[in-house]
Amino acid sequence: MSKSILVTGGTKGIGRAIIERFASEGFDIFTCARNTADLKALQEELQAKYRDIQVLAIQADLSKKSDVTRLISEVKAVATPDVLVNNTGVFLPGAIHNEPEGNFELMMETNLFSAYYVTRGFAEDMIARKSGHIFSLGSVAGLTAYPNGGSYAVSKWAMLGMTKCLREELKPHQIKVTSILAGATYTASWEGVDLPVERFMKATDVAESVWAAYNLSPQSVVEELVIRPQLGDI
């Protein structure tokens, strides 16, 4: 039976690179995004390139709990994934004391609450099966305070804390939990910035790190993986 991976927010950037990496190894793919056209294009490309895998692409806005619930239901109707990557996220710069009203709620709902509810949706099945690997795509913003981080940084610090708790809760059940704490990675959100592309990490490097962490023996787990640009944070 084929193994499967669910990557939330999988049509672009790091999520897309992770999907490509696991699809190339024969994993069935479950993913979601807000844009239907992007999902359709991703599904068609994957199915043309990897003819032996199944691809389920679901339109969902994970800042809305109702969409999270629907995503869980539609994926579980097919399978409980072997690997879960909580990747959905949004970044709006600003300072806590004066960022626009609503930034905090949007980023907490998108970056943290979605991961909380998606994880809860599959954890019991993973416990019963006694296997699974959950990855949280955090950020170095969840390790180091910096100006203009605002609610984004708050959400990523919270994500790291949640993932640490999950690690302790799930390790007796043979379920691995890993925080990926990535620095500036060149994705669409950085396009147009006045810096050379070479200054950024590649999304494929993050994907390779996730693949490597997944492939350790059952006796070992990568709890936290910090990946930064070679020349330091941006």
UniProtKB/TrEMBL annotation:
GO MF, one annotated term: oxidoreductase activity
Entry keyword set: Oxidoreductase
The UniProt record lists the keyword Oxidoreductase: yes
Signal peptide: none
Origin superkingdom: Bacteria
InterPro entries assigned to the protein according to its UniProt record, in alphabetical order: NAD(P)-bd_dom_sf (IPR036291), Sc_DH/Rdtase_CS (IPR020904), SDR_fam (IPR002347)
Family under the similarity heading: Belongs to the short-chain dehydrogenases/reductases (SDR) family.
Name of the molecule in the record: Short-chain dehydrogenase
